[in-house]
Design a protein that fits this description.
3-stranded antiparallel beta sheet, alpha/beta, about 160 residues, globular, 4-stranded parallel beta sheet
């Protein structure tokens, strides 16, 4: 598979009431096709967040956006542009980080969570030196993270999100 030079094509989800910011690394092929976060059908992000917020799993992009905002959760990615092979986080090269200053200055973000180790490492390298805001590494909701069951993911995300509330 060849490297592609790609730019993040869709905006973050947040508003002036967002208290938790969940950051991924860069959208997968499926997410890029859909134009929204966590688009792979086996990614457990939407199952986890809907369980944490105690609501039904959203299906449409608008339902997902509304669920996040109602739960005071913002979602974005660390990377604005990069070279990548398919959806492989391990292939990411030539990173340009997203600018989080608008979200962090206009929303009362209490906690930043990284969805997976790659997002956490990229945050530490490119964004922490600018924001000086700590990030908490969370287990990835990706289907590639088979070591974590849905129940374990829900428990750890629920615990982290409760701490921010």
């Amino acid at each position: 598979m060849e490297y592609q030079n790609l730019k993040h094509e869709f905006p973050p989800v947040w508003d002036s009431k967002s208290e938790i910011l969940i950051l991924g690394s860069f959208p997968s092929v499926k997410s890029r096709e859909q134009g929204f976060f966590y688009g792979h059908p086996r990614n457990r992000f939407w199952d986890v967040i809907s369980a944490v917020l105690q609501c039904s799993r959203p299906e449409s992009i608008e339902e997902k956006r509304q669920m996040l905002l109602a739960g005071h959760i913002a979602v974005w990615d660390v990377i604005e542009s990069c070279r990548i092979q398919g959806s492989s986080d391990s292939s990411i090269r030539d990173v340009v980080a997203n600018d989080l200053s608008e979200i962090l200055s206009q929303a009362p973000i209490r906690m930043i969570l990284a969805n997976g180790r790659t997002a956490e490492k990229l945050y530490q390298k490119y964004i922490f030196p600018v924001t000086h805001r700590p990030v908490t590494a969370m287990p990835s909701t990706s289907p590639a993270n088979a070591a974590w069951s849905l129940e374990r993911l829900i428990d750890v995300y629920r615990s982290a999100i409760k701490k921010a509330s």
